[in-house]
Amino acid sequence: MSKIKMRAMSLLVVMVMVFGMCTPAFAANGKVNVTFADNSTTTLVNTNDIVLHEIGATDVDSVTVSDGTNTDTYTDFSKTISQTLAGGTRYQLLVVTAKDGTRALHFKLQNTLNDTINIAVKSKDVVYTAHANSGAYGQNNNCGGLGTCTMTGSAETTIPGGGVYEVTFTPNNGQEISKLNLRVGAADGTGKIVDAVSGTTTVEGQTFAVHANADGTINVRAGKVVNNLYITALTRDESKYFDLDVSTDGHSSADVTHESIREGSTKTVTFTPSKGYTVTELNITDGSSTGTLVLNANSVRVNGKTYSVTRKLDGTTILTVPAMNANVSVKAVAASDVHFVQVETAAHVGCVRYGMNYVKDGSSFEFYYTPEKETYIQSITLESESLGRRTFLVNDNNIVWAETGEWYYNNGNWFNGTYWEQNPWNNTRIYFDSFGQLHVYFAHLAESVKVSITARTTSHTVTVRNDAGIRVDNTAYTVADGNAFTMKFYPTAANTKVRYLTINYGSASANVDLNRNGSVRIGNALWSYNTATDGTVTLNASTITDSATITASSTGIQSNGRWITTSPDAHSTITHTNENPYFWNDAVTVRITAANGYSLSNISFQLGTQVVNVKPVESSFVLNGKTYSVNWASTDDCSVYFPVVPGYLTITSTTIADKPTTPTNPSTPSSDYYHPAYMVGVGNGMFAPNDALTRAEAVTLLNRAILRMGDNMTDSYKTMGYFADINGHWSAGAVNYSGSMGYLSVLAAPGAAFRPNAPIPRAEYLALLCVCSGVDVSATDTASLYTDLPAAHWAAKYINYATAQGWVNGTGNNQFQPDRSVTRAEICRMTNHILGRTADPSAVAAEGPTFNDVPVTHWAYNDIFEASHAHYAQTANGYETWKVA
């Protein structure tokens, strides 16, 4: 039995977790006597799981287990220890990490307790190191290094386990501390980036208390240190501050009277009126501009900015002050004889009193809802401070009180036999008139009221708009609620292409580029689109539950024309993305491949009278004054990317038969298969193997590894703005390119937020991999292969396909964990396995470690090495022989 030393701490109390105490299989015929590290003792009978020691402030030195016959002393807990005693009792000793990151040594019974067991725990002291530094936010993976703050103490401080560490950061002139990066265990260990504001946060069982001081300094205190600490203060350029001053007329109070607000920041102010009062006006001064927000308005523009307000039925008024760039003052005015009726409606139901309405105390107020044709009101809800909510269901002009099921109004008869309902609403009447309009009448309003409805339309209108280059069968469709919808768009001429669709569906919308077939989810409907060889576009919606407007636009060929003609010889093939004709803003990737047993000998590109010949493995050529890159996968496979088709382009390819040869160490790379480097470090010689792979990193690596699109080949897409949050991001070129080509339809809709810095889950990565690889999963069975992957899961077909291909396996216990993120190290192993790539052992040994945080002993060292080094390789018997690219 292997034995090592582990850390321990004194337990002041016995910590016992009971699993299935009533399960007969674990009925006690013995007992467990425990002596903890602090010499406290206990005897346990009906328990299967005993916490022997919390690891952190101290470490476990040893655990001795005796049954009276045999005595075993353990010091190595790096693996689970399993043992069987003389009486047949089986047990395990193992370290368990809780959800909050705390670790503890457990003793777990595996069957019936048949022995008297004596356990003695010994602990030892431990020393940790606290590291503190500073740097600019967003640089060096937010791990500091630029020294943008001064700090108390030294950069490294030794702390005894269970001790206290404290550091205060003072920003340099012109800087302010905006974030803190708090990590434990290692510099690239588990951590959190938190705002530099007062509060507490816990990382892997270590609690940090942060105090933000008025002078801009930040104090960080770690009480009861249980691990190595890494604390980085992250700064940005110092902001300007503006004054926010708030006052009232004495009949209300505000939660803010004066505050200095950072430039560009927003602020909410809550006004609470005195009993019997309502806040009726907010007089706002922003810089030199003034405006008044009155009771029947929800917003007002002052100094070019929108001030908005939310009102509650108890009279509370919440004002949102927009991004401040000048001093602001607000004064609230309240009145005692005014209430409001907040009227809300639903789609396809009109109401002239929609919004906020003034009503004098004790006055009557009436309004009505007018449903559009084929729309009916389902329910109406009345809400006030004194009565709470009352919901009435509407069925064939009959109104039923939902809480009691009683008829409130039924064909002109009130359920209590009177014309008015006598209740604290001060005589309320709800009724339909002869025109089908639903009326709400308050006879003597004594408080503020909110009225809302729900409605449903039995059918919906799909309106179609098209330009002169497109023909459609109809410009308006009526679709029954919940039904699917399909239509077609036809180009009117051979030199016309149906290029873009704008779909407005309910309150959501999306822009669709028809350069590639795909789908986009808008609201609750999945819209798919497909372009046939004759240019006809078919649009399908899975379900229609709201009105839609579809605008189709076309593009025509310019007078000089943009067309690709291919002329391969008998042993080669030339393909290109998208289809003729091409337009001024169409990008295209041309791929030239040779048949088995042949290699490409020459590729010519002709534009007008200019002809350029490309030989293997020339990396670029100049055509019409522009340089184009050639990406060689091997001498029988290459591709060329054209950001814009330059005109009438003719491409010709010729081949030669391969000579039979099996070189083990070729002198030139021309006959080898090119493996691009698809992963790079994060800076300062680090790879961050344990960091979660982000969506941006996933798209970029698949661009490089699968699509063979080097970073320079996607540079022209950086400003395309295909997604709402990608402009200016380091991955903009790769993401915009992949989005425009339709590869990212499984991740986000055009124009939506892409969330490039969010971790990518296993399901999303496999779906993206399948799409980029061009595989068709439509025929894949969705029957569940894993217990946590139901057939209805959106990515079931992708995951089942990848499993069938042997690309991936589950995570154990017949689970796949589709929503779990993957680390950068894990993705190297997965991608290499899928691509059949392995590192050349000779190259690995000769090169040595590439990254400071990936030693040769790291479990993914070879995979990371393979993924981060470009090379030409020949593969035999599952091993690669490299030549550096």
Walk me through what this model shows.
The protein is mainly beta and 885 residues long. Helix 1 runs parallel beside helix 3 (762-773), helix 3 (762-773) crosses helix 4 and helix 5 (824-835) crosses helix 7 (861-868).
Brief account:
With about 900 residues, this protein is mainly β.
The CA-CA distance between the termini, in Å, is: 49 Å
Q: Helix- and strand-based class?
A: mainly beta
Low-confidence stretches: 1-28, 410-426, 659-671
Question: Could you tell me the radius of gyration in angstroms?
Answer: 35 Å
Percentage beta strand: over 45%
Outline, from the CA principal axes?
globular
Beta strand count:
64
Oligomer: single chain
Name the helicity range: under 10%
In what order do the strands lie side by side in the largest sheet?
Answer: 33-31-42-35-36-37-38-39
How does the major sheet shape up?
8 strands, mixed
What is the residue-averaged pLDDT?
82
Tell me the number of helical segments per DSSP (H or I, 4 or more residues long): 7
